[in-house]
Amino acid sequence: MAGLASLAGASSVIAAEAPPGASSCSGCHAAKASVKTPVPRLVGRPAADIVAALQAFRAGQRPATVMDRIAKGFSESELAAIAAWYAAEQD
What we know:
Elements: H1 2-16, H2 47-59, H3 67-72, H4 76-88
Helix pairs in contact: 2-4
């Protein structure tokens, strides 16, 4: 039982660490609901929605000012990791 508790603690620590590249999002996408910004928040959004938006930016199917260039800088696995991390984060 103690082993399971320590594993659970370790996984929550790992989940709390942002994957490489996630910090580039926080410059425009506020983490807290109390911050008023026209840029949509990513925290708590479904990972599939975040990935789909990033893929659309990358393909030029979604209007962008800088997101098209940012999205092109990540591999598919990096996009998935960033999206999963933001989806799991909470206010």
